[in-house]
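Changelog note: in this version the structure field was regenerated for every chain. One regenerated record is shown below for reference.
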Amino acid sequence: MEKDKINKEREELNLLNNDGVKFTIEVDQWRWFRRIRKPRVFEIKQPTLAVLDLLSAEAIEVVIDEEAVAKNPIGESKKILARSIVPVSRYIAIAILGRSAEHVTPFGYCRNDLKINKLASLIRRSMTPKQIKELMICIINESNLVDFIYSIRLIAEGRSTAPSRIEE
């Protein structure tokens, strides 16, 4: 019985990781001095390692001091909100753009801040906190960090000698 649940969950995650997640945002557009709300469909697919690196760079910007929140929940929540709106919207934008979040230069790949900021601005203007929470859960599931950590463990287990740092 327990194995059936695990297998079903694994099948759902594989389906999610292969197909991606599609969602719609109502976007305001201006036509002849009139505002028109149009749906725009976005898709989040499983990110590459380069995209995971960009996502982790944005995630580092979001810091929550649990002790300060415990002392002053409302005041600290407002400070966290003010600090975190831009990094969270950029995080979602990078997840949506995927490999398009970077562009090729003669020296390698660079982050495409123009595309990221444009989409992040759209996200900030169009999405509610509840939608962002649900989307963040989808992004974390789609990132498939469990398999990545598992592959790192496989590499670490295969060593014949104990690691020694040069600094020591």
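Spot check on this record: The longest strand covers residues 21-31. The helical segments are 2-19, 49-59, 66-71, 73-97, 113-126, 129-143, 145-157.
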